[in-house]
Structure formats: C-alpha cells, structure tokens
C-alpha cells in the first residue's frame, strides 16, 4: 500500500472549506489566532526553535523527537488500514498512514513537515476529531482532541513544553 497519496484538487478544496468553516481559519502572518479548534486543546510556543542558532545536533535531536513521538501518537489512534490528512497550506496535501513508511524530503523532513518552518502544516484525523496544527508566524503548535492529547501527555515531545493556551472539554 502506498503512503503519502496526494489529495485530488476536489479533496483539497473540500478540506480547505472544512478548515475555514469548522476552525474559522483565517490565514495571516500578523493577526492571531488564525484558527480556533474545539476543546480540549493545548497550544505550545515553539519560537525558541524557529531560526535556531544553537548547536544543530541538539536541534536535530529535538526535531527528531517531535517527529518520532508525533508518529507514535498517530499510530496509536489510526488503524493500520486507515488514512489521515497531512496538509501543507500552499503546496500539495496528502492522505497518510502512520503505519506505513514515512519517506523524507531532500531536507530530511517528512514530505509535509511536522514543524511549521514556513507554512501552515496540519495533521488531522479524517473526520476532524483530533489533530496537530502548526502555525509558523504565531510560532505555535496546537494539539486538539482528547485522544491525541492523551497520547502526547504519555509521550511528551521535548519541543512541546511551553503551553501558551489551553482549554479543557
């Protein structure tokens, strides 16, 4: 079975429409928040990792930890034959299955990176029950949905330690 299957133009349009409607998505580089997710959620500040100037080995280790623990959380919630969305706002978006191979790009990142280093990157369950939303200009990663939050609480990525907003159910 193939992983990272590009969404058709119709699928991409429907996902975008749903994001605008359900999350009141309003893309902006200056007006925040750009989206509102349903509770429960936690929003983490990742500003200290954007434009990293420290030891690159440390950053790569922390970045790899985020990828690994995110993949672990997705696998715990997605069946082996099920797919979820990996959305890159200005580029192709995909159906992905966390149980299948996760090839990396020429920059040693997932095809849609988990770390928002230049665009909105969203990883969302196909029915929008939970997800991880990266905002590069707000410099945050937001995790929503009880099940996904529980997974991240059990296996907390080192990058996600500074909560800037949260809401319980």
Mean pLDDT: 94
Gyration radius from CA atoms, angstroms: 15 Å
Q: Give the fraction of residues assigned to helices.
A: 25-40%
Which class do the helix and strand fractions yield?
alpha+beta
Kindly, what is the distance between the CA atoms of the first and last residues, rounded to a whole number of angstroms? 37 Å
| Molecular shape | globular
Give the SSE string.
Answer: EHEHEEEEEHE
What does this 3D model show about the protein?
By secondary structure, this protein is α+β, with helices and mostly antiparallel strands. The protein has three helices and eight strands; from the N terminus they run βαβαβββββαβ. It has an eight-stranded antiparallel beta sheet. α2 packs across α3. The longest helix is centred in the middle third of the chain and has 22 residues, at about 55-75. It is globular. The mean pLDDT is about 95.
Q: Top keywords for this entry?
A:
3 helices, alpha+beta, 27% helix
What would you say about this model in short?
The chain has three helices and eight strands.
Outline the fold blueprint.
Layout: E1 5-6, H1 9-22, E2 41-45, H2 56-77, E3 84-88, E4 94-96, E5 121-124, E6 131-135, E7 140-144, H3 146-154, E8 163-167
Helix pairs in contact: 2-3
């Amino acid at each position: 079975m193939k992983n990272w299957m590009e969404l058709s133009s119709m699928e991409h349009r429907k996902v975008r429409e749903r994001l605008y409607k359900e999350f009141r998505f309003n893309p902006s580089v200056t007006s925040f928040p750009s989206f509102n997710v349903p509770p429960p959620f936690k929003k983490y500040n990742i500003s200290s990792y954007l434009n990293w100037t420290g030891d690159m080995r440390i950053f790569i280790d922390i970045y790899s930890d985020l990828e690994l623990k995110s993949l672990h959380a997705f696998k715990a919630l997605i069946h082996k034959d099920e797919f979820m969305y990996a959305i890159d706002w200005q580029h192709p978006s995909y159906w992905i299955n966390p149980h299948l191979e996760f090839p990396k790009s020429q920059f040693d990142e997932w095809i849609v990176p988990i770390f928002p280093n230049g665009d909105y990157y969203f990883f969302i369950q196909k029915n929008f029950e939970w997800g991880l939303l990266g905002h590069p200009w707000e410099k945050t990663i937001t995790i929503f949905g009880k099940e996904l939050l529980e997974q991240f609480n059990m296996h907390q990525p080192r990058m996600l330690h500074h909560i800037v907003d949260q809401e319980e159910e």
